[in-house]
């Protein structure tokens, strides 16, 4: 019974739980069914409504954007329209700055409209055209005003900067502040500011600057006689010129600076002192803007036509140039104060302060030009040089007192003996040139070199080296210019070839010592560098020798050509042949005589004698060769050949006339055998032409006689066979020649 009770109790407890659980299951199933229905509802209806709402929202958003854009476009169109209207009314009232600003407003509105993508309105094209028309309209008005304010009165020959034209030019500035304020002409500032707003000021100023340079500033620099003549009247300021008579050829930089300063001062007072708002640049004055446009050209003109000319050509005047540097500095300061120049602009001052370099450049340029003129002048104007000739030199500086080469007196190359120690002594003429003639232009060229080097020793180091190099350049230039420039004459005229030869030797002679004379000026940088011209000496000697040898070849060729018409000196018993040979010899002697005359007193005697000896020798050798080659010489032939040779022997030495004094030439005529190697050969040939067989054998003397010295055995045998008939005596004589 107790167990039953427990089971009942448990059952009673369990039952509600089961029921509760069953209820819960039923509820969950109901809920699940509800969810399914709701899901189906969402999928079928709500999703569709959401899609529709989203599409509507996007469409509304786009609509709003479109409306906003249209509104902003309309706003900009309205702004454009307002700006153009206000522009018109401002222009009517001649309020140019306001008009220009309104026009720029319209332009920016239009730019924004044009940048809108997808809004290509046809109206924009029309607005653009309208803007262009109105811009041109205001520019025209401003240009008219500008022309009223700034009036150029130019001569008919517009574009000319000649003195006559410039004197007639005037600049009228109607910018004088009027007494009564009620004036129709707007002040210059308004016109300029309006142009600045429109971006047109640069263009106008460029034109003004061009005229200012051409008709006022440059003429003041180029024509020293011009003076600015400003005049102020109640309503106009006038700038004109007057020309001072008897002005100097060149004005000093100080005078030019003063004139230009005066022009800028009056321009500053009546025009340039206007402050403007430049788009993107802030406030600037008109002076600054004009300065940027014209200063480069103006400073160039001042440097090349004023400062360059004022650079001294003499180092002694360099000290006075400080005055120019000072006035250049003041000039730049004054222009900076007027704001015409920026603070960092120093082109002029830099140039002026660099005077030592410019002095050297100018000096070098002048020296090279002078040298070139000398090189291209006539060679045949000559001066005589003798062993004791000196370059007319200023006193060269003495060697420094502490110098170990104290005995060296640079300014006197030929002062007595040169001491080489106790034993040997050189003749005083060791370093001398032989007497000859050189071009006066070459003497001047060497003087120019000495004077330039002397100037170098007194200059700053940089300048000194530049001048030293310039002197080297002169001599190198000589080697290039002279042979080319005078080429034809040097080839054609034997006298010029001889003078050129002497010129080169004269220069080479001076180059040997030219550097050393200047090394002992201890203050100069030349004392510490290798100042020498010795390396140029071989080139000059070669130049002289080659030119003279070329002329010798020409003369030799002419001698041989003349002798070629002598019919080989064969068959002289034929009258015509004899005449031809006689004529050839006479022509050769005439040629030698002419050369002897044109080289007389020109070539040094030793060179003269060598040259004439060589040419005479050419003729003698050719005659000997032709006669030795003959196979048959009759007795009459031999006589006639002998008489032709006698002409050469008698008249040949007479062509030696190296000196003007006739009696002094005898000595050289007697020395002809020394200069013409074939002289004795020729004399021996004449002996053979007159000798009998025995005399020839005696002259040969078993190969030890005078004949053997001049001719080979084969040549003597050939002559015997030609002169004598084939006899036993001839055979016996031939046998002895070996």
UniProtKB/TrEMBL annotation:
GO terms (BP aspect): cell division; endoplasmic reticulum to Golgi vesicle-mediated transport; mitotic spindle assembly checkpoint signaling; protein transport
Keywords: Acetylation, Cell cycle, Cell division, Centromere, Chromosome, Coiled coil, Cytoplasm, Cytoskeleton, Endoplasmic reticulum, ER-Golgi transport, Kinetochore, Membrane, Mitosis, Phosphoprotein, Protein transport, Transport
Domain ZW10 C-terminal helical, chain residue ranges per copy: 583-737
Compartments reported by the entry: Chromosome, Centromere, Kinetochore; Cytoplasm, Cytoskeleton, Spindle; Endoplasmic reticulum membrane
Coiled coil regions, renumbered to chain: 21-48
Positions of the Centromere/kinetochore protein zw10 middle domain: 143-375
Domain Centromere/kinetochore protein zw10 C-terminal: 432-561
Gene Ontology CC terms: endoplasmic reticulum membrane; nucleus; RZZ complex; spindle
Topology within the bilayer: Peripheral membrane protein
The keyword Protein biosynthesis appears for this protein: no
Stored Pfam families: ZW10_C, ZW10_C2, Zw10_middle, Zw10_N
Gene3D superfamilies named in the record: 1.10.357.150
Residue stretches making up the Centromere/kinetochore protein zw10 N-terminal domain: 2-84
Self-association and partners: Interacts with NBAS and KNTC1/ROD; the interactions are mutually exclusive and indicative for its association in two different vesicle tethering complexes. Component of the RZZ complex composed of KNTC1/ROD, ZW10 and ZWILCH. Component of the NRZ complex composed of NBAS, ZW10 and RINT1/TIP20L; NRZ associates with SNAREs STX18, USE1L, BNIP1/SEC20L and SEC22B (the assembly has been described as syntaxin 18 complex). Interacts directly with RINT1/TIP20L bound to BNIP1/SEC20L. Interacts with C19orf25 and ZWINT. Interacts with ZFYVE1.
Membership in a protein family: Belongs to the ZW10 family.
PANTHER family: CENTROMERE/KINETOCHORE PROTEIN ZW10, CENTROMERE_KINETOCHORE PROTEIN ZW10 HOMOLOG
Name of the protein in its database record: Centromere/kinetochore protein zw10 homolog
Organism of origin: Cinclus mexicanus (American dipper)
Gene it is expressed from: Zw10
């Amino acid at each position: 019974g107790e167990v039953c009770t427990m089971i009942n109790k448990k059952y009673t407890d369990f039952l509600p739980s089961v029921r509760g659980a069953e209820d819960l299951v039923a509820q969950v199933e109901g809920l699940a069914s509800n969810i399914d229905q709701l899901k189906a509802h969402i999928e079928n209806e709500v999703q569709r409504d959401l899609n529709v709402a989203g599409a509507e929202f996007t469409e509304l958003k786009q609509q709003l954007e479109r409306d906003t854009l249209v509104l902003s476009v309309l706003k900009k169109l309205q702004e454009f329209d307002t700006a153009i209207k206000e522009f018109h009314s401002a222009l009517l009232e001649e309020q140019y700055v306001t008009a220009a600003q309104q026009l720029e407003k319209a332009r920016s509105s239009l730019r924004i409209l044009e940048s809108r993508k997808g809004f290509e309105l046809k109206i924009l094209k029309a607005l653009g055209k309208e803007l262009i028309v109105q811009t041109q309209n205001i520019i025209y008005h401003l240009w008219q005003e500008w022309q009223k304010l700034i009036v150029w009165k130019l001569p008919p020959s517009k574009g000319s900067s000649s003195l006559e034209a410039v004197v007639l030019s005037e600049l009228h500035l109607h910018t004088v502040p009027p007494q009564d304020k009620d004036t129709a002409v707007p002040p210059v500032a308004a016109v300029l500011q309006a142009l600045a707003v429109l971006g047109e000021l640069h263009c106008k100023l460029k034109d003004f600057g061009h005229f200012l340079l051409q008709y006022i500033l440059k003429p003041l620099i180029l024509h020293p006689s011009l003076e600015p003549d400003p005049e102020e009247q109640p309503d106009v300021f006038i700038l004109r010129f007057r020309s001072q008579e008897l002005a100097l050829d060149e004005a000093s930089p100080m005078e030019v600076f003063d004139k230009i300063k005066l022009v800028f001062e009056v321009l500053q007072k009546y025009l340039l002192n206007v402050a403007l708002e430049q788009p993107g640049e802030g406030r600037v004055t008109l002076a600054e803007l004009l300065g940027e446009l014209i200063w480069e050209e103006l400073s160039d003109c001042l440097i090349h036509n004023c400062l360059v000319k004022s650079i001294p050509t003499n180092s002694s005047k360099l000290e006075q140039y400080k005055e120019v540097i000072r006035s250049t500095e003041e000039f730049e300061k004054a222009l900076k104060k007027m704001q015409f120049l920026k603070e960092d602009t120093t082109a002029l001052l830099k140039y002026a302060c660099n005077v030592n370099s410019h002095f050297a450049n100018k000096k070098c340029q002048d020296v090279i030009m002078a040298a070139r003129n000398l090189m291209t002048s006539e060679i045949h104007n000559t001066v005589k040089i003798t062993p004791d000739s000196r370059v007319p030199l200023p006193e060269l500086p003495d060697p420094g007192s502490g110098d170990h080469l104290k005995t060296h007196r640079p300014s006197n190359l030929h002062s007595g003996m040169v001491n080489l120690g106790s034993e040997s002594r050189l003749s005083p003429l060791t370093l001398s040139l032989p007497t000859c003639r050189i071009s006066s232009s070459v003497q001047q060229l060497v003087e120019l070199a000495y004077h330039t080097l002397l100037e170098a020793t007194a200059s700053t180091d940089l300048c000194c080296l530049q001048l030293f190099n310039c002197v080297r350049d002169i001599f190198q230039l000589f080697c290039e210019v002279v042979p080319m420039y005078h080429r034809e004459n040097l080839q054609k005229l034997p006298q010029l070839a001889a003078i050129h030869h002497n010129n080169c030797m004269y220069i080479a002679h001076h180059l040997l010592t030219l550097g050393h004379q200047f090394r002992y000026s201890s203050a100069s940088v030349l004392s510490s560098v290798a100042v020498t011209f010795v390396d140029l000496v071989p080139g000059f000697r070669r130049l002289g020798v080659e030119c003279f040898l070329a002329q010798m070849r020409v003369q030799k060729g002419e001698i041989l050509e003349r002798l070629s018409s002598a019919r080989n000196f064969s068959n002289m018993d034929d009258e015509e042949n004899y005449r031809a040979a006689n004529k050839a010899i006479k022509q050769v002697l005439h040629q030698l005589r002419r050369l002897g005359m044109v080289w007389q007193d020109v070539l040094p005697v030793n060179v003269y004698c060598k040259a004439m000896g060589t040419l005479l020798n050419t003729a003698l050798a050719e005659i000997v060769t032709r006669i030795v080659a003959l196979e048959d010489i009759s007795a009459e032939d031999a006589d006639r050949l002998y008489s032709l040779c006698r002409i050469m022997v008698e008249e040949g030495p007479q062509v030696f006339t190296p000196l003007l004094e006739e009696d002094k030439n005898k000595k050289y005529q007697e020395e002809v055998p020394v200069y013409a190697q074939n002289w004795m050969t020729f004399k021996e040939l004449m002996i053979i032409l007159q000798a009998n067989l025995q005399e020839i054998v005696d002259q040969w003397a078993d190969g030890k006689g005078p004949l053997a010295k001049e001719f080979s055995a084969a040549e003597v045998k050939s002559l015997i066979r030609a002169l004598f008939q084939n006899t036993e005596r001839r055979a016996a004589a031939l046998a002895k020649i070996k």
